[in-house]
Specification:
With 80 residues, the protein is mostly beta strands. It has one domain: OB fold (Dihydrolipoamide Acetyltransferase, E2P). 12% of the residues lie in helices and 40% in strands. The strands form two sheets. It has a three-stranded mixed sheet with strand order 1-4-3. A two-stranded antiparallel sheet has the order 2-5. Strand 3 and strand 4 form a beta hairpin. The two termini are 34 Å apart.
C-alpha cells in the first residue's frame, strides 16, 4: 500500500498485525525484474485527497481456553 502522510501516522500509532482495516484508494499495478523473472504487484494508493484507511476491528487475542476475544470461537490450529 502507498499511503498519504496522515494515514501513515494513523497506522504507525494505531494498527497492529492482524487488525482488520478498510483501505480506500486507487488500485495501481506495476512490475519489476528480479533475477531474470518478472514480478507483478498490485497496491492500493491512499494519497492526499484520494482515499483513507479505517480501523474496523482490533486483532483477536487467543485466551488460554482456545477461544478468541473477538469471536468467542476456538481458533484453528495448524495441520499436524
Amino acid at each position: 500500500m502507498l499511503f498519504k502522510k496522515a494515514a501513515v501516522t494513523f497506522a504507525e500509532r494505531t494498527l497492529k498485525k492482524g487488525d482488520l482495516v478498510i483501505a480506500e484508494g486507487r488500485i495501481e499495478n506495476r512490475s519489476y525484474q528480479k533475477e531474470g523473472q518478472t514480478h507483478y504487484m498490485t497496491e492500493i494508493a491512499v494519497r492526499e485527497g484520494r482515499g483513507d484507511i479505517q480501523l474496523m476491528a482490533k486483532a483477536a487475542t487467543e485466551r488460554p481456553d482456545g477461544t478468541s476475544r473477538r469471536s468467542g470461537r476456538p481458533q484453528p490450529t495448524g495441520a499436524g
